[in-house]
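Bit of a strange request maybe. I'm writing a small parser for structure token strings and I need a real example to test against, not something I typed by hand. Could someone generate the tokens for this chain?
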Amino acid sequence: MLLSNIETIPGKTISEYCGLVSGSTVRAKHLGRDLMAGLKNIVGGELKGYSELLNESRKEAMDRMIMSANNAGANAIVNVRFSTSSVAQGAAELYCYGTAVRVE
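Reply from user aminoacidic:
Good idea to test on real output. This should exercise your parser:
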């Protein structure tokens, strides 16, 4: 599956639009990660536990979007975007979406 965050796939021609596709995941904070983040706030630095959580969430949401595009018969997704929102205290949704297309 070809992915692009612009309206085209360079070097390819869009021959068919297959529709909007998306994937999402909702994740809650982990108590152990929260404790480590609290300690890291004292000394500063990257919150690696949260970085890993966000990377896993982005990958899962993107994989679900790709599965949706495959089901629609697409071989590429253009205008790929990510969005986040809080759905409950301590839980957030990561949403990935784009336009499924066939390219030649």
